[in-house]
Amino acid sequence: MDVKGLAQAGVDAFNDRSFREKAKDMMDPNVVILDAPTSQELRGPDGYVQYSEGFVNAIPDLKGTVIEHKVSGNKVTSRVRGQGKFTGTLATPTGTVTGNGNPVDIEYQIDQEFNDEGKVVRFVVDYDMQDFMRQLGT
Predict the structure, then answer these.
(1) Measured between alpha carbons, how far is 56 from 61 in angstroms, rounded to an integer?
(2) Is the whole model's pTM more than 0.85, yes or no?
């Protein structure tokens, strides 16, 4: 099984926005999605779509470019550079923030663990929250 290829396919699906249709094919029904900086946890393919939509709603043109994939058994750690403009709406625990057009250029890490069927069972995203908020101008 080419877990590196599966990890890249996930980034590609985010970039072309096909993640909405492909979530059930890519994710195990019981996948755990974790946003490390906030400890927000979602579950299942619908949780993955909801999580991804949060970033797309805030930064509609956001694209990720893989810097590297590191494979260890059935786990892949990907370093990704995300770029776009904050022109949408960001939902926060205290309400929504309207985009101001600020450019966003941030490196983040995705840790994915795959089962024997090649579906993601654990999806953890980590990034510098303070830098992200600074770039958004919030």
Answers:
(1) 7
(2) yes
